[in-house]
Design a protein that fits this description.
By secondary structure, the chain is mainly α. 46% of the residues lie in helices and 7% in strands. The chain has a two-stranded antiparallel sheet with strand order 1-2. The longest helix is centred in the N-terminal third of the chain and has 26 residues. The radius of gyration is 22 Å and the shape is globular. The relative contact order is 0.14.
Length: 480
C-alpha cells in the first residue's frame, strides 16, 4: 500500500491533552499516547474532541476556499496566479484528477473523518457524566456531517466511512451514491442536534444552532439536486425560522467589524468560525492573504495571484458598504499600482499589512440563514413579504435601499436578486462556486465571461488519481 492513498492507510492517531486557555484551540500540546489506550476520563474525551476540531484548519487554510472562490466569477487570476500550480488550475478551470489541491481536499477531509470516527468509537466506553459525554459526541457528529457535506458537494459519490479502519478491514472501499451521502450527513446532524447544548461548551465550539444552520444548508443543497424535493425547501424554512426566533443570532450593525480580529468568536452574527492563530502559534495560519495580497510590498505585482474581478466590482451597487474590502488605490499608505485587493481577511487597523494575522474563517454566518430562508420561500411560492424582508435586512445593513417591488416581481427575478446578494455578502468566504453549481448557473456564467472551456464536468471535481490507481473499487467521475 502506498502512503499517499488516504483510504488505504492504516491511520494511527495521536491525541491531545487539553490545557486551560482563553481560546479553546490555543496552545494544546501533542501527546504520544495512541488511540488504543488514551481514552479513560472525561478530560481525555474533551481533548479528543478538541483534536478533531483542529483538522478544520487543514481544510479551510487553503484548499477549500481556493477552489470555491477562484473557480468562479468572483476573482481574476494575475499572471502569477495563472502560472501557479495551486491557483491556476481553478482560476483557469483546467483542473484534472492529478491536480495537487484536489488530492489535498480529499485527503484532509478523510483524515479529519478518521479522527472523528476514532473518538466516536472510544468516548462511549468512558465512565462519566452521560449528558456531558453526549454533548461531546454531538460535536463529533456535527464535524463529521460538515466533512461529508463538503465531500458530496465537491466530489459527488464518495465512500462513507463510519469507523476507524484497521488492517482487519477491507480497505478497498467503494463510492456511495450522493443521495446516500446526503442521508448520512442528515443523520449525523440530527444526532448532533439531539445531543448538543443550546450554547457552546467554549466559544467557537458547536452548539445546537450551529448544527441546525448546517442542516439547513444541507437541505438547501439537496433541494436543488436530482434527489431533492419540495420537502427539502420546507425543512430549510422551518430550520431557519427556528434559528431566527430562538438562537440569539442577529446581524451586527457594522459589516466591517465582522473581520476585526478583536471580534472573533464574539459577535451575534458569528455562527461557526474556523479558528486560526498567528505565525507564533502551533496552530496552522490562514493563507488567504497570501493569495489575495502581494507577499513583496516593494514589488506589488510579484506575488498576488487573484484579484476581485471586474464583473464582481460592476455587480456591487453604489453606496454598498461591503465594497470597503475591495481596494484598488491605497491600503494603509501603500499604493497599489496595477490591480485591486480583497482586504476582508486583513485587519489593517490592528495589523497593518502583516499577512500572518491568523484571521478566522467564517463557515456559517447569520446572513446565510436569512438568505437561505428567502431562497427556499421563493423556490416554493415565489416572492413573499417575509422573504423580501429577509433579503432587505442584509441589504440595509450594507447601506442599501430595499429591493423595489418591480425588481423582484416574479420568482426568477427574485432568485437573481438573492444570488446577487449572496455573492456580494460572502465575497471571499467560499460560497460562490457552490452557489453557481447548486443553481445550475456555473457553465452559462463562466462562458458569458469568455471561459469557453467550462462545461458541465466543472460542476464537480474528479476523484484524485492516486485513489483510482491504488483502489480497484474506486471509479472516476464522468469525463475525467
Amino acid at each position: 500500500m502506498k502512503k499517499h492513498n488516504i483510504l488505504l492507510q492504516l491511520i494511527v492517531l495521536f491525541l491531545l491533552f487539553a490545557t486551560a486557555c482563553e481560546n479553546f484551540l490555543e496552545e494544546v500540546p501533542k501527546s504520544s499516547i495512541t488511540a488504543s489506550n488514551y481514552y479513560g476520563t472525561e478530560e481525555d474525551a474533551d481533548a479528543a474532541v478538541i483534536y478533531a476540531y483542529q483538522d478544520l484548519t487543514g481544510i479551510y487554510a487553503l484548499n477549500y476556499w481556493l477552489m470555491a472562490e477562484f473557480a468562479s466569477d468572483n476573482f481574476t487570476l494575475t499572471n502569477a496566479g495563472e502560472g501557479s500550480s495551486d491557483s491556476g488550475p481553478f482560476g483557469l478551470f483546467s483542473w484534472d484528477a492529478s491536480t495537487t489541491r484536489v488530492k489535498y481536499l480529499w485527503s484532509t477531509h478523510y483524515n479529519a473523518i478518521a479522527n472523528v470516527n476514532a473518538a466516536l468509537e472510544k468516548i462511549p466506553e468512558i465512565d462519566g457524566d452521560a449528558t456531558y459525554l453526549n454533548q461531546l459526541l454531538g460535536e463529533l457528529y456535527f464535524l463529521r456531517g460538515l466533512y461529508y457535506y463538503n465531500l458530496v458537494r465537491f466530489f459527488g459519490d464518495v465512500p462513507i466511512i463510519l469507523k476507524l479502519l484497521t488492517t482487519a478491514d477491507d480497505l478497498y472501499v467503494t463510492r456511495a451514491a450522493s443521495s446516500e451521502v446526503y442521508e448520512q450527513v442528515i443523520n449525523d446532524l440530527i444526532l448532533a442536534i439531539n445531543y448538543l447544548p443550546d450554547s457552546p461548551l467554549d466559544p467557537g465550539r458547536a452548539d445546537v444552532f450551529v448544527a441546525k444552520t448546517l442542516l439547513a444548508k444541507v437541505y438547501q443543497a439537496r433541494a436543488f439536486s436530482s434527489d431533492g424535493t419540495s420537502a427539502d425547501y420546507e425543512k430549510v424554512i422551518s430550520l431557519c425560522e427556528d434559528i431566527i426566533a430562538n438562537s440569539g443570532h442577529d446581524l451586527i450593525e457594522d459589516y466591517q467589524d465582522l473581520f476585526k480580529t478583536a471580534n472573533e468568536l464574539s459577535t451575534t452574527e458569528s455562527i461557526f468560525e474556523v479558528q486560526f492563530a498567528d505565525q507564533e502559534s502551533n496552530l496552522a495560519i490562514s493563507y488567504m492573504n497570501h493569495w489575495f495580497l502581494s507577499t513583496d510590498f516593494s514589488i506589488p505585482t510579484s506575488a498576488y495571484q487573484a484579484q476581485p474581478s471586474d464583473d464582481l466590482v460592476n455587480t456591487v451597487e453604489p453606496g454598498d458598504k461591503r465594497a470597503i474590502f475591495i481596494a484598488d488605490t491605497l491600503v494603509n499608505g501603500f499604493v497599489l499600482t496595477d490591480g485591486r485587493w480583497l482586504t476582508k481577511y486583513q485587519d489593517i487597523e490592528e495589523h497593518g499589512l502583516d499577512l500572518y494575522t491568523g484571521a478566522n474563517y467564517y463557515v456559517l454566518r447569520y446572513p446565510d440563514v436569512l438568505l437561505m430562508y428567502a431562497e427556499a420561500k421563493n423556490e416554493l411560492n415565489g416572492p413573499s413579504s417575509e422573504a423580501i424582508n429577509a433579503v432587505n435586512a442584509v441589504r440595509n445593513r450594507a447601506g442599501l435601499d430595499d429591493l423595489s417591488s418591480a425588481s423582484v416581481a416574479d420568482k426568477d427575478a427574485f432568485s437573481d436578486a438573492i444570488l446577487k446578494e449572496m455573492r456580494v455578502e460572502f465575497i471571499g468566504e467560499g460560497h460562490r462556486w457552490f452557489d453557481l453549481v447548486r443553481t445550475g448557473r456555473l457553465v452559462s456564467t463562466m462562458q458569458n465571461l469568455g471561459f469557453t472551456n467550462v462545461d458541465e464536468r466543472r460542476n464537480i471535481l474528479p476523484i484524485p488519481q492516486a485513489e483510482i490507481d491504488e483502489n480497484p473499487n474506486m471509479t472516476q467521475n464522468t469525463n475525467y
